[in-house]
Amino acid sequence: MSPRRIAFALLLAAAPLIADAENESIASTPVNPTSTDVIQFALTSLTHTDCDFPVLQSTTVSGNVINLVILLPEINSFAACNAVPTPFSAQTTVGPLAAGQYQLNWSYVGWLADTYPSYSRSLTVAAPGGVAASTPLPSSTFTGLALLGLLLGAFSIVALKLKTVR
């Protein structure tokens, strides 16, 4: 296989990783919650097809871990499905929570759940009248894979250029 084909294949393989990482988000309101606030989470993402209809199945708080589980119901027929990424969103509330640092996890269960990535981010809840130590920023375990895909693509391009110089 030629180096150009290898580079092209690597870039194609990285494209879905990069797209998924950019389209997933968990927003919280208020942004800097205190232990007296009820916190609303708004989850937004893209499905793989226009037939996927994810729904929020459960929200649980166990110690300092908040788990949001999205259910992907089974599709009976692919006849009318298009491979078009389709936006979806879900909302839920928790709290009030005790002051402290929390781990917010978002995962999928159900049909084809293994084709969707799981995400997590930290959330700081301050004491009443206090200021959160830091503004919670979205982060995902999948972002590392997207960056790895970018690095592999860049490495392939450099390798191609070095081969053509020789």
Classification by helices and strands: alpha+beta
**Helix amount:** 25-40%
* Most strands sheet: 4 strands, mixed
Question: How many distinct beta strands?
Answer: 7
Mean pLDDT: 74
Strand order of the largest sheet: 3-4-6-7
What does this structure look like?
- With 166 residues, the chain is an alpha+beta fold.
- It is built from two helices and seven strands; from the N terminus they run αβββββββα.
- Helix 1 (3-23) runs antiparallel to helix 2 (143-165).
- Residues 7-21 and 132-142 have low confidence and may be disordered.
How is the topology of this model organized?
Elements: H1 3-23, E1 25-29, E2 39-47, E3 55-62, E4 65-72, E5 86-94, E6 100-110, E7 119-125, H2 143-165
Parallel strand pairs: 4-6
Antiparallel strand pairs: 1-2, 2-5, 3-4, 6-7
Summary?
The chain has 166 residues and is of the alpha+beta class.
